[in-house]
TrEMBL record:
Sequence similarity: Belongs to the protein disulfide isomerase family.
Molecular functions per Gene Ontology: protein disulfide isomerase activity
Region (Disordered): 493-518
Gene this chain is encoded by: Pdia2
The protein's name: protein disulfide-isomerase
Alphabetical list of PROSITE patterns matching this protein: THIOREDOXIN_1 (PS00194), THIOREDOXIN_2 (PS51352)
Pfam family membership, one: Thioredoxin_6
SUPFAM superfamilies: Thioredoxin-like
Length: 518
């Protein structure tokens, strides 16, 4: 998903009368006085904090979630209405939790004290403790903020005292977690409470009554995940030697709270990508085709063997999934298609379309996991004049022969068409191409990294600039300095280095098999 940066610009015309200018000066002076006072003022229900009132805010509010923001930050601007709505919701619930905000660009001392290096950064201050704030780990929306704060303002798990309350709790939602502990003061129980505080999108209950152990057929401390789908209940017994590891339990709950086979929709996309399952197996099909719908049976039959390692997802090519097809180089006409994605590097593996049986699917997945299948790499077709322009236009098919030409020094911009930073430096890159178009040993090039993939180079941000020096060894130097023509030229004239900083040099292994031809 691509989020567009929205900038809100405020401008006051200079053609104002003298009295209004004086009034403006007075207003500025009043604002400066506010910043010198410890008075707590609000904006849209959110406390406006600075170094002179921060201590007072901590002393008056035992739970205070503070957003450190920058006025120019697009992410902060998008969060602002959700943050204000969350503050209003908590206030309406008479919650002890309050929300505040700090302009980290103006309040430099506070930003330094709390190690703020990116925006927005949210930290929770509890019981006036200024030295150990808790990093916010919830979703950046109203519901996520409210749930996260609710878990910290009250018990993170509901105490279930008898079979009636337990049965009512278990049936109350599609997904609930209950920890059964013979001693609620035990280390395992405390780890469970810790998990309950973090995993705010599931309701948590806790029980220690002997009758509940008997009613749910348990003899040892166990965490039970009750769900109204798939197998209905999954038990995680506490290891008597190792105890209960909070991070391990969190991941188990994330994995098993998902349906064995997910459908990619607007409602499930966040669950799918936040599950942290390393591989996704995707079945692209047209749901309006009854013949293609039957393929889900074999797909589901194969899923159980890989739970936790591979997430199985059905993508409707004519529905919500249509928007992701270009990422896989697919069109609706390519359905049905099976594709496995390694999430760490977005490598894609296409399965042979001869059969969609559960046995064939399992065999294919295991082969990918064992490293026996080559990834399917996207490549656009090269333009007819790709090598006639000052900036050479590379695609997956031509990259290898150009970048690793031992007679050339090749400077490549990896970009995304929608990237505003790429657009901002486009003119400078074109000018650089013009400047070096007649140099026999220097090539200025660009590659659309959203439409082309390379076997041994992963691009994770845009724009990314890499320099491939002439000579043997397949060397690659990442450029991380200023993005202007003069600095680019200095870098090239120095053979891929700048006096200010040593370059990060790596060696790129050759692709398997013969190099592709255009």
């Amino acid at each position: 998903l691509v989020w567009l940066l929205v900038l809100l610009l405020a401008w006051l015309g200079p053609a104002l009368g003298g009295e209004e200018e004086d009034g403006e000066v007075v207003a500025e002076e009043e604002e400066e006085d506010d910043m010198l006072s410890d008075e707590l003022k609000e904006e849209d229900g959110v406390l406006v904090l600075h170094e002179h009132n921060f201590a007072r805010a901590l002393s008056e509010h035992r739970l205070l979630l503070v957003e450190f923001y920058a006025p120019w930050c697009g992410h902060c601007q998008r969060l602002a209405p959700a943050f204000a709505q969350a503050a209003a919701t908590l206030r309406n619930e008479s919650s002890p939790a309050w929300l505040g905000k700090v302009d980290a660009t103006a309040q430099v001392a506070l930003a330094s004290e709390f190690g703020i290096t990116s925006y927005p950064t949210l930290k929770l201050f509890r019981d006036g403790n200024r030295t150990h704030p808790v990093a916010y780990t919830g979703r950046m929306d109203t519901e996520g903020i409210v749930r996260w704060m609710q878990r910290r303002s009250g018990p993170s798990a509901t105490l279930l005292q008898d079979t009636d309350t337990a049965a009512a709790f278990v049936s109350s939602q599609d997904l609930v977690v209950v920890g059964f502990f013979k001693d609620l003061e035990s280390e395992a129980a405390q780890a469970f409470y810790e998990v309950a505080s973090e995993v705010v999108d599931m309701p948590f209950g806790v029980a220690e009554a002997a009758e509940l152990f008997q009613a749910y057929r348990l003899s040892v401390d166990t965490i039970c995940l009750f769900k109204k789908f798939d197998e209905g209940r999954t038990d995680f017994p506490v290891d008597p030697v190792r105890g209960l590891d909070a991070a391990e339990l969190t991941q188990l709950l994330r994995v098993h709270s998902l349906e064995l086979v997910m459908e990619f929709t607007n409602e499930t996309s966040n669950q799918i990508f936040s599950a942290k399952i390393p591989h996704h197996m995707l079945l692209f099909l047209n749901k309006s085709s009854s013949a293609q719908l039957t393929l889900r049976d074999g797909f589901r039959a194969a899923a159980g063997a890989f739970r936790g390692k591979v997430l199985f997802v059905v993508v409707d090519v004519t529905g919500y999934g249509a928007d992701v097809l270009p990422f896989f180089g697919l069109t609706p006409a390519d359905a049905p298609t099976l594709c496995l994605v390694k999430m760490e590097n977005n490598r894609k593996y296409r399965m042979d379309q001869d059969t969609f049986s559960d046995t064939a699917i399992r065999t294919f997945i295991q082969a990918v996991l064992d490293g026996k299948v080559k990834p399917h790499l996207l490549s656009a077709e090269p333009p007819e004049d790709w090598d006639k322009r000052p900036v050479k236009v590379l695609v997956g098919k031509t990259f290898e022969q150009v970048a690793f030409d031992e007679t050339k020094n090749v400077f490549v911009k990896f970009y995304a068409p929608w990237c505003s930073h790429c657009q901002a430096m486009a003119a400078a890159w074109e000018e650089l191409g013009e400047r070096y178009k007649d140099h026999e040993d220097i090539v200025i090039a660009e590659l659309d990294a959203t439409a082309n993939e390379l076997e041994n180079i992963t691009i994770s941000g845009f724009p990314t600039l890499h320099y491939f020096p002439a000579g043997p060894g397949r060397k690659m130097v990442e450029y991380k300095s200023a993005r202007d023509v003069e600095t680019f030229s200095k870098f090239l004239e120095n053979g891929g280095t700048l006096p200010e900083e040593p370059p990060a040099v790596s060696e790129v292994p050759p692709p398997q098999g013969p190099p592709p031809t255009p």
